[in-house]
Design goal:
- Helices cover 49% and strands 13% of the residues.
- The protein is an alpha+beta fold.
- It has two domains: 19-107, no CATH class; 129-204, no CATH class.
- The protein has a five-stranded antiparallel beta sheet with strand order 4-3-2-1-5, with helices on one face.
- A hairpin with a 6-residue loop joins β1 and β2 (141-149).
- The chain is flat.
- The N and C termini lie far apart (52 Å).
- This is Membrane protein.
- It comes from Rhizobium paknamense.
- Pfam families: DUF502 (PF04367).
- Keywords: Membrane, Transmembrane, Transmembrane helix.
Length: 220
């Protein structure tokens, strides 16, 4: 006969219940905290510029969260709408011509604008794929986000043997907010099926959250 399985002690059950509750509550709490922090940050920047007669706090006498964020979203959307028609485009072009005449400001403006256009462009494939490269030595692999094909001077300098080079971004764990821009041969890059969101979860969790993958699915 199979010996009876000993029941866990009260302390063990208490610990397990606490850990289960922590797994349930922690993501919800962190998400709410981040959302609330972002709303307050947006309000602190925008609310001081709202005329008093349009600010609900002057009538309700208590803090209304999200008013500044809502005003910022509406304002940015209106500016985008105006920038797509002829009159708005002319105003934007006039403002850019003034900025381009400022020695230091024009360099910052061009760089920031190029970054935002590359990231927000709908047709862009930047950071839509995840891959693996050998680093720091053969046999050891790291996760990277694929940026784009290398072009320009870097491509001319590195493609001497005719092999295409790819720009990849290698972030650290567990906070992928910084990292290294690397140029690797396409043949040395293993493209994965996982999405960038799944890759980010894998990095943030330190390898604990592995994305699901069907064995029958061939890698790209």
């Amino acid at each position: 006969m199979t010996p009876p399985v000993p029941k866990p002690s009260f302390a063990t059950r208490l610990r397990n219940n606490f850990l289960t509750g922590l797994v349930i509550c922690a993501p919800i709490t962190i998400t709410l905290w981040l959302t609330w922090t972002f709303i307050n940050w947006a309000d602190s920047w925008v609310t001081p510029y709202i005329p008093a007669r349009y600010n609900p706090e002057n009538y309700l006498k208590y803090y209304v969260p999200g008013v500044g964020l809502l005003v910022a979203v509406v304002t940015i959307t209106l500016i985008g709408f105006l920038g797509t028609n002829l009159i708005g485009r002319s105003i934007v072009d006039f403002g850019e011509r003034i900025v381009h005449r400022m020695p230091l400001v024009r360099s910052i403006y061009k760089s920031v604008k190029q970054i935002f256009e590359s990231v927000l462009k709908e047709q862009s494939n930047s950071f839509k794929k995840v891959g693996l490269i050998e680093f720091p030595h053969p046999g050891t692999w790291v996760l990277v986000f694929i940026a784009t094909d290398v072009s320009g001077e870097i491509a001319a300098r590195l493609n001497e043997d005719g092999e295409e080079m790819v720009a990849v971004f290698m972030p650290p764990t567990p906070v992928p907010t910084a990292g290294f821009l690397m140029f690797v041969p396409r043949s040395k890059l293993k493209v994965l099926d996982m999405t960038p969101e799944e890759g980010a979860k894998l990095l943030i969790s330190g390898g604990l959250v592995m994305p699901e993958w069907k064995p029958g699915k061939k890698p790209q």
